[in-house]
Amino acid sequence: MTREEHLKFCKICNNQKFDSQKGIICGLRNSIADFENTCESFDENTQLKEKLLAKNSKNELDSQIASQGTRFANYLLDRIFILIISFFIAFLLTLVLALISPNSVGYFDQMGKFEEYIWAFIIGMFYYSFFEALTGRSIAKFITGTKVVDENGNKPTFDAILLRSLCRYIPFNALSFLGSDAIGWHDSLSKTRVIKINQRE
User: Fold this and answer.
1) Which one is predicted more confidently, 78 or 27?
2) Residue 22 region by backbone torsions, left for phi larger than 0, else alpha for psi between -120 and 50, else beta
3) pLDDT category of residue 115 using cuts at 50, 70 and 90
């Protein structure tokens, strides 16, 4: 067996010991493992095993985080789709107003800046919360082959998605994912990540 294969046992064994020169060694023999197939002295530590599995899962997830370029493409595409949806909803509401209150037809043309912001906030919250809670992907993420998951790689809860959508409206949040780890504030605060699903389903 190779050293790497031995360490799969040694790293989660109660008999392990750390040597500054050799690394993890057997505390019973004070030497690195040299067994074949199985170790007769192996004594599994469930806590160490859980920590190792969690660490490996995190490393795997981190290696599949969507790049800055992909995140920026998601942002731009979602902005376009939100504008299209916003226009479509405004058009439908205008038709409804024309039928029930003709004097209110020009409402959307007369909105002030604050009203426009509230309108954009409502549409954006609905867009992201609906699509990401339902499928884990906004329309842009379908195009770029990415998906929202929690920090363990699982489907996020609805509360996490709602918080994620809300955090998008923090000032300068759109620039926060341009750091070296490509993780934005709306990712970190909601404990979610955006990964490439062509590698992880």
Assistant:
1) 78
2) alpha
3) confident
pTM above 0.70, yes or no: no
pLDDT at site 23: 87
3-state secondary structure of 154: coil
Q: Which residues have a Cβ under 8 Å from the Cβ of 160 and sit 6 or more positions away?
A: 150, 190, 191, 192
* The dihedral sign for the CA sequence 67, 70, 76, 79: negative
Q: How far is CA 189 from CA 105, 150, 158, in A?
A: 40, 11, 14
DSSP-derived secondary structure letter, 109: G
Query: CA-CA-CA-CA torsion for 69, 73, 79, 80, nearest 10 degrees?
Result: 150
Q: Are strands 192-196 and 23-26 parallel, antiparallel or unpaired?
A: unpaired
Place of tokens 């990540």: 193
